[in-house]
Design a protein that fits this description.
Elements (H helix, E strand, L loop, with lengths): L10 H15 L5 H11 L6 H10 L6 H25 L3 E2 L2 E2 L1 H5 L1 H22 L2 H23 L8 H26 L4 H28 L2 H4 L5 H4 L5 H9 L4 H6 L6 H13 L2 H21 L5 H14 L4
Antiparallel strand pairs: 1-2
Helix pairs in contact: 1-3, 1-4, 2-6, 3-4, 3-8, 4-6, 4-8, 7-8, 8-9, 9-15, 12-14, 12-15, 15-16
Length: 321
């Protein structure tokens, strides 16, 4: 979805270049891999992570290799989406059939692994040893958080701290790495690199909270998937956590007083989270993390780069998909 970046000078062209690198670097003569990736790449994602990487790199000296590293980050992200869809048994991704729906779970896992291998090949050639280590650590955290999330399905022992820990590992760390690695690979000043790392962290937390809110209050035609997927899969996200303290009927507290809940309970939880103000309360958290990011952005060197990053951050808070 390169058009998402039309208001950001130079970014549509830069991300078109990144998309070309992704396609070229992941090309395969194997028909299953080739077809699976073609469908995945036609999903028209926003390319947020490579976009943030390149924005951050502009605070230093942008070089040709940075487009390749931005592509590697997106390939890592796409690989995690393929694996997530297998774990969640999701039939659709961005309105299109998921890879495992088309080719089966075994081939889907291998296609995701193939993308990871191509990501590693690029980073081995172009990134610094420290950022290669950061990437390896990130993948380890992502896998750990996925396992924890899977083990916690339909469990009622939810907490705000546990939720934030999971979305840090599943989403925010990749945003943070995109911003930090982009700046550090471009030799931006150390203070700028660290500030961008914090900006990416806060943007990532807010972005995932909004994603979780959209599962309760989004427009199905825009989100391009049925609402309520998370609770149907047994996942407790922030709208429900907030709703627990707001539900005056006591119904939610009753459900969560038990060690676990059922799929049938999930339908009631979905409705109560929407009716009790949980969605609005979760939105307050997203706004808080967005404001933290904006405060850090205001301290960056002034200029077009900072202005674009501020505009993007505000736009991500108010979105319908």
């Amino acid at each position: 979805m390169i058009s998402y970046w039309n208001d950001f000078p130079g970014m549509p062209e830069a991300l078109e270049k990144v998309s070309g690198i992704i396609r070229g670097s992941s090309a395969s003569e194997n028909p299953v891999i080739s077809s699976g990736l073609t469908g995945l790449f036609s999903g028209k994602g926003k390319l947020l992570r490579p976009g943030l990487f390149l924005m951050a790199a502009r605070f230093g000296k942008l070089q040709e290799k940075h487009y390749k590293l931005a592509a590697a980050l997106e390939m890592l992200h796409l690989a995690t989406l393929v694996h997530d869809d297998v774990i969640d048994d999701s039939p659709l991704r961005r309105g299109l059939p998921t890879v495992h729906t088309r080719f089966g779970k075994r081939d889907a896992v291998l296609i995701g692994d193939y993308l990871l291998s191509r990501c590693f090949l690029i980073t081995a050639d172009y990134t610094s040893p420290q950022n290669a280590l950061n990437l390896a650590r990130l993948i380890s955290v992502i896998c750990t958080m996925e396992i924890e999330q899977n083990n916690d399905r339909f469990r009622s022992n939810v907490s705000l701290r546990g939720y934030l820990r999971k979305i840090l590992g599943k989403s925010a760390l990749l945003f943070s790495l995109a911003c930090y690695a982009g700046a550090s690979e471009a030799k931006a000043p150390r203070e700028v690199c660290q500030r961008l790392r914090r900006i990416g962290y806060n943007i990532g937390i807010a972005f995932q909270i909004i994603d979780d809110i959209l599962d309760y209050a989004g427009n199905e035609e825009l989100v391009r998937k049925p609402l309520g997927n998370d609770i149907t899969a047994g996942l407790i996200t922030l709208p429900v956590i907030c709703a627990l303290s707001l539900d005056r009927s006591g119904t939610l507290q009753d459900i969560f007083s038990r060690p676990s809940f059922t799929a049938e309970d999930g339908e009631r939880i979905f409705t109560l989270a929407r009716q009790s103000g949980g969605v609005e309360a979760a939105g307050g958290y997203a706004e808080n993390y967005t404001n933290r990011a904006l405060k850090e952005i205001a301290a960056l060197p002034p200029g077009q780069n900072r202005d674009m990053l501020e505009t993007l951050t505000r736009r991500l808070l108010i979105r319908e998909r």
